[in-house]
Structures are given as C-alpha cells and as structure tokens.
Amino acid sequence: GQNIDQPTEMTATEGAIVQINCTYQTSGFNGLFWYQQHAGEAPTFLSYNVLDGLEEKGRFSSFLSRSKGYSYLLLKELQMKDSASYLCVAKDSNYQLIWGAGTKLIIKP
Amino acid sequence: IAGITQAPTSQILAAGRRMTLRCTQDMRHNAMYWYRQDLGLGLRLIHYSNTAGTTGKGEVPDGYSVSRANTDDFPLTLASAVPSQTSVYFCASSPVAGSTDTQYFGPGTRLTVL
Fold first, then answer.
1. Closest to A50 (Cβ–Cβ): which among B98, B100, B102?
2. What is the pLDDT of residues A23-42, one digit of tens each?
3. β-bridge pairing A9-13 and A103-108
4. Residue A51 touches partner B, C-beta closer than 8 Å
5. What CA–CA distance (Å, rounded) separates A100 from A98?
6. DSSP string across A18-69
C-alpha cells in the first residue's frame, strides 16, 4: 500500500534549527510537497521536490532522495510563528496525492 | 473574492439531515477537490473534479456527492449525515489536473454531526 511516515510531534527552541523527516512508499513517484498548517487554518504550500537534492527557500529548505524514499524539511532561525503542523505529501504515478498525518512543531522561547 | 471560499465556517447538524457545503474559487482553476481532515490522519480525498462537468471518486466517497456545473463552484452534499462524518472539510483547487501543480485550499468547514 501507499504510506507516508513522519513524526507526530517535535519541539524546538526559538532561533534554533529543526529537521522534520518523512519517508514515503508510493506506486510510482511524481514529486513530494511540504505544506504548513497552522492550528485551525488551511494547509499552505511550502515546497516541492521532484529531483534529488536540496531546494532552499529563505529559512526553509527541503531535501529529497528518491532512491531512499526520503525527504526532510529544514527550518532555520526558528520563530514562534513557525509553530504549526508540517505535512509531507507524495504524488504517485497517477498524480494522486498521498498525505502524511503531519508533524506538529512546537517552538519554545 | 480572492482565492477559495467555503461556507459555512462551521455547522452542527443532527444525524439524518441533508447538508451541502459550498466551495467557490475565482482563480479559473480547472481542478477542484474535497478533503476531510481527522485528528491523527492525513487529509483524505472525498471527491474531485478535473474540469467543469466531470467528477470522480476519491479515497472516501461513501455518503457524499458532488457536482461541477461550472468552473467556479464545487458543492459537497451529505445526503443523510452520520456522526462519523464529523470532521473538518477542506476544498482545494489547482490549475490543471493530473500534474504537479500546487493545490490551494479554502479555509475549511468544521462539521459536527450529533
């Protein structure tokens, strides 16, 4: 079956760096997304990877290894507003999205 | 309107009642989607529409129906609500179906079925 695994919850300190890992198993692969979702709000797009390597976008970076079925989201210089859930989403060969349950990131002062 | 809107924001509904959740987008996106989000689970696709006039079933379609009479609107109907349909419902759209396009989400409808 198709599956996304990511930690349920992580805690980090303001100003620090945190890495949220995701492993996926899909029927074929057409890219991996990361979405951010603040409590009570809709998911919003953060990043998209389809080729191996690191994509950097300001304080956020996303890495993909297709051979390992692995991705991570790296958040630098953490701010309190980064407290949210981070959703790992893989797209399979039929372009269907497989959503992870999300990692709740708690930022402490 | 800018983006996607959903109505109502929240609703408490008696079991057995019929309910339509509304979704409208003004981005002229071809594809639209309905998801439900439950605690501890990833978003699950209920129904989708690749273009106006067509619809398809997602992962959890039972008990729900949709229509896509035009590009902008994609209502979701619960014919006879049951408590297991208590959830947060998100409508989303993307420019083209079957591609790697990002999906844009509405603010969600929080539905409680008693």
1. B100
2. 999 999 999 999 999 999 99
3. parallel
4. no
5. 7
6. EEEEEEEE-SS---EEEEEE-TTS--EEEEEE-SSEEEEETTEEEEEETTTT
